[in-house]
Amino acid sequence: MTEKTETFAPSAEQMEALARAALARIPEPFAGHLPDIVLIVEDFADETILREMGMEDPFELTGLYSGRPVGEKEGFAIGEIPQPDTIHLYRVPLLAEWVETGVSLEALVTHVVVHEVGHHFGLSDDDMHALEDSVA
């Protein structure tokens, strides 16, 4: 008799582990600027974020960087409280893209993480692709 196994979509914790593994593969000089980045995995972006991004469909947004790019870290205004640099991953849109594209979830999460790290450094799309190639 064959034992029945069940397969479930990865949890937020499992997706965070994939994202942390992707962050760990990012090379220097970038890696030295990443230890303080906060990583948050949520099912969807909230309504405020979607509105700010000009999006109506919550499945359009798989990740978001919030914070100041590395080159803009100096010169906070008086009384301004610096917020932590944060990468948000949106689990359900990532899972939907995974199903639709057939790309491995690890590759997809790596792509989104590298893209958001690229925003942290103010990189161009070409530079983000080169960084992603070095992480893959």
TrEMBL record:
Could you tell me which Pfam families the record lists for this protein?
Answer: Zincin_1 (PF06262)
UniProt cross-references to InterPro entries, sorted A to Z: Zincin_1 (IPR010428), Zincin_1_sf (IPR038555)
Species in which this protein is naturally found: Sphingomonas suaedae
Q: Which CDD domains match?
A: MMP_ACEL2062
Please, which domain of life does this record's source organism belong to?
Bacteria
What name has this protein been given in UniProt? Answer: Neutral zinc metallopeptidase
